[in-house]
What we know:
The protein is α+β, with helices and mostly antiparallel strands. The protein has two helices and two strands; from the N terminus they run αββα.
Amino acid sequence: MAVGPGKYDDVCSVARLSTDAEVAILIVVNGFAGTGFSVQARGGPMIFAVPDMLEHVAAAIRVELKAKPPA
């Protein structure tokens, strides 16, 4: 994970603050500043759960795509 602000950090801040989230993860593909990501956390141990959360999301997406491929 990159340390420090990235090219979409301001957009990720808006999402995290407006949802009062502990952690926000933003992934952008071909956005106005190109492809990139931003991860933000209030602090504390929750940030250490991010890699496992992302692996869980990736596995769930793979299962869904195998069950019903996009048209």
